[in-house]
# Entry
Amino acid sequence: YDVIKPKDFEDILKNLASGKFQAVVDDIMPLSKTRDAHEKVEKKDTFGKVVLVPDSVLKADAKPTGWVAIE
# Structure
């Protein structure tokens, strides 16, 4: 069960590339809050990925390309 077959892996990559599969992002945090981000993950207080970005990105109130908020 721990092995992905080559054909399945190809299908997964195609679906990721086409946008059919998307990562779920729980939070975007500044690098200055790296410790808080690690604690959040360690507590399993997330539903999805925690993304760390340079502080300047968040100060400019910019979101990464393709960012869609899940409400």
Q: What stands out?
A: The mean pLDDT is 84. The radius of gyration is 15 Å. The helical segments are 6-18, 34-42, 55-59.
